[in-house]
Amino acid sequence: MTTSLAKPKPINGEADLQLQRVETLHQQLKAEHARAQELLARLKGEEYQAAAARNPPPPPKAQDWVRDPKALDKKVAEFRKRAEKLEKAAGVKNNALDMGLPELKAEEREIRDLEARVSGLEGRVRGFEGLPPDKELALLEVEKMRKELEALARRRDAMFEGLVEGEK
Residues of 90-121 as b/e, b for ≥16 C-beta within 10 angstroms? Predict the structure, then answer.
């Protein structure tokens, strides 16, 4: 009788099954713990620390907006109203959010045309560099340059005639 008390006999196979399940779960937990430790070590590594330093967390208010979508919706509405007020105050109409792709392409073409026009005007303005700001003085300077050009043209013509007569 003493041997039977020292060595318990399984009442049924259910206890053995439960023990196997517990051991399997324990092994899975150990493996998951090892993976978590490995991930934690990688996150504490230089690569992730450098990335975290480059990308600081958003300010506390922004974090609140991310956590609470309703607050974010309110802020978006507030910013839109502020943008509309600024557009009205500046007299600018900006419907970029309402525009489709064809409208944006047309707007881009217009901008490129304007850029080309500005480049042409800048070239014309460069032609006036060195002239005095006063209109009368500028006209005198232009007349002076015109006379100098005519003198140079006469000199060129005279030199050309001299070359032609020298060849005969």
Answer: eeeeeeeeeeeeeeeeeeeeeeeeeeeeeeee
Q: What's the predicted TM-score (pTM) here? A: 0.30
The token duo for 163 is 């070359």
User: What residues contact residue 16 under an 8 Å CB cut-off, 6+ apart?
Assistant: 10
DSSP 99: -
> 10 Å Cβ neighbour count for 124?
8
Contacts of 99 (CB under 8 A, 6+ apart): 107
- Look up residue 153 and give its two tokens: 């043209």
pLDDT tens series, the chain, 168 aa: 455 555 555 556 777 888 888 999 999 999 999 988 888 887 787 777 777 777 766 666 666 666 777 777 888 888 888 888 877 777 655 555 566 778 888 888 999 999 999 999 998 888 778 778 888 888 888 899 999 999 999 999 999 888 888 776
